[in-house]
Structure formats: structure tokens, C-alpha cells
Design goal:
- This protein is an alpha/beta fold.
- It folds into two domains: 3-182, Aminopeptidase, CATH 3.40.630; 188-213.
- The chain has helices at residues 24-42, 59-69, 99-115, 132-135, 152-158, 161-179, 197-203, 208-212, and strands spanning 3-8, 18-19, 22-23, 46-49, 73-80, 87-91, 123-128, 141-148.
- The strands form two sheets. The chain has a six-stranded mixed beta sheet with strand order 4-1-5-8-6-7, with helices on both faces. A two-stranded antiparallel ribbon has the order 2-3.
- Helix 1 (24-42) packs across helix 6 (161-179) and helix 3 (99-115) packs antiparallel against helix 6.
- It is globular.
């Protein structure tokens, strides 16, 4: 079974970026918990998280724990700051064409369209950086920067519980695609304009009640 490590940036005494009455550490934890729940519900996979509560974990400890566990991939979730806008992902600079690069592409191309369901989102690109959690991990590793906490338009999305859930789940789908995870028999369907419970239930030969459940 594949082993996935999910890393919620900051925590405890380290609040991360601040803005618009939001704290980065709170948002990253929500994203990670949504991603973990989605992975565990829909796929056969083993998931560990750096933190499931508001505690401080050093950068080296984050990498060391994932290395010791033998994680197959490492994904770290963050919120940007600096009065910019948009979404970007990072891998370690020396890994062009590597598995980290492939993981980065899967995540980026899954998360960005999900965000854009909630409005215009700038694509800041697939980037590289010498971040400790990317440098010190032994497995393919990617860090996502999910909008800007100190930009009002971005912050309004970050205050939206549905947005956070869907972005967390988009991380999970990107991970699943990269690892080619076996599903637990769950069928995914994207709602189209004009759909009804009846039409979808008929398409999949189930009852409306089963679909609602």
C-alpha cells in the first residue's frame, strides 16, 4: 500500500502568514484534514500527517518523520503572503524531470481548475525553491501555496469552507493520479448544467435515494 505524508504548514507558536483576520496555520490544517479524509475514504492508501492539531513541529522534524516512516510522497500545504494573488507550486531546484516534477504537475493541474470554479485565480506557475521540507525529504516532495492571505479577494475565498474542502480534496486527487491509487469503488461525476438527481440516478442505474445518500 502506498504511503502518503501530508504536511500542514506552521502550527502552534508559529502562526505563519496573517491577514484579513486569518492565520495560515489554521487554513493549512483544514486543507490537510480534508485531503486526508478524501484519500482515506476513496482510495486504498496509508496516510500520515505532520500534525492534526494546532502544535508546533520544526522543519527538520517534518522531513525526518516522513523519511523515517518511509513515505512514498510528501505534500506540504501553505498560504502565501506579500499582497500578490493566485496559486503556485514548488519542488526542489535540482529535480527537473524527476518524480517530484511529475507530482508537481499532477497537483497543479488538479488544484488550479478546482479553485477557478470559485472565480478568477491567477496561475503563478510551477516553481522551484530551496525549502527545507523539499530539500531534506527523501521522497518526491511538493509544496503548494494556496492564494494570498493578505489580499482581500483571495482571503474571501479562504474564508469559504466549501472552497477549502474542495481545494483539500483536489490535492488528494492529484496525489491519487500521481500514485495511480486503486479506488475503493467510488464513482466520480462532475455536475453539469441541467442535471437533476433523477437524470444522474438514471445514468448510473441507481435510485434517487441512493444518490442522495
Amino acid at each position: 500500500m502506498k504511503k502518503v505524508w501530508l504536511d500542514a504548514g506552521h502550527g502552534g507558536t508559529d502562526s505563519g502568514a496573517l491577514g484579513n483576520n486569518l492565520r495560515e496555520k489554521d487554513i493549512t490544517l483544514q486543507l490537510v484534514l480534508h485531503a486526508r479524509a478524501y484519500l482515506e475514504h476513496n482510495y486504498s492508501v496509508d496516510v500520515q500527517v505532520t500534525r492534526s492539531t494546532d502544535v508546533f513541529v520544526s522543519l527538520s522534524d517534518r522531513a525526518n518523520r516522513a523519511n523515517a516512516w518511509g513515505a512514498d510522497i510528501f505534500v506540504s500545504m501553505h498560504i502565501n503572503a506579500g499582497e500578490g494573488t493566485g496559486f503556485e507550486t514548488y519542488r526542489y531546484p535540482s529535480q527537473e524531470g524527476s518524480q517530484s516534477s511529475l507530482l508537481q504537475k499532477e497537483l497543479h493541474t488538479e488544484i488550479l481548475p478546482t479553485m477557478r470554479k470559485f472565480g478568477t485565480i491567477a496561475d503563478r506557475g510551477l516553481k522551484t525553491a530551496n525549502y527545507a521540507v523539499l530539500r531534506e525529504t527523501n521522497m518526491p516532495a511538493v509544496l503548494s501555496e494556496n492564494l494570498f492571505i493578505d489580499t482581500t479577494a483571495d482571503a474571501e475565498k479562504l474564508k469559504n469552507a466549501t472552497f477549502l474542502r474542495e481545494v483539500g480534496e483536489a490535492h488528494a486527487r492529484g496525489i491519487a493520479k500521481y500514485l495511480n491509487l486503486p479506488s475503493n469503488g467510488v464513482t466520480f461525476y462532475t455536475i453539469q448544467s441541467g442535471d437533476t438527481f433523477y437524470s444522474i440516478a438514471k445514468k448510473y442505474n441507481i435510485t434517487v435515494q441512493q444518490l442522495q445518500d
